[in-house]
Design brief:
Elements lengths: L1 H22 L13 E4 H10 L1 H8 L3 E13 L5 E5 L7 E5 L15 E12 L1 E9 L2
Parallel strand pairs: 1-2, 4-6
Antiparallel strand pairs: 2-3, 2-5, 3-4, 5-6
Helix pairs in contact: 2-3
Length: 136
Amino acid sequence: MKRLLYFLAAIALIGAAVGYYLWNKPHTNMQSAKTDLVIEATALFNEFSADENAANSKYLDKTIAVSGKVKESTKSDDGTVKVSLQTGSDFGVLCELDPLSKHPRTEFAEGETLTFKGICTGINFDVQLTRCVEVK
């Protein structure tokens, strides 16, 4: 009986250590993160519009660099900056700047051509990219 209790205590301790490590694991530095794919905003949006399942398997949860012209830039009350890139339709590619990174600028002019690197989270009217940083 004691052996069983020691075994269960050891399992619980290992589980707690793994949980602690994962909870405190540092976030990926998006400035230096490896880019999995590079694509134009229009091409990315068109792929999601044509076949969402195929596009999800290709882009979802991957770090991608997207280039395009700024359609709109907004800053919410909590300081979150979102930049929408033009795609030739009513919807676009929405890039949310990474709150964990320092950005040299957070205001972008309409019509300006930019490249953002971020993690693709799928489509919800716009193709969504989170944790974005501007690529020079």
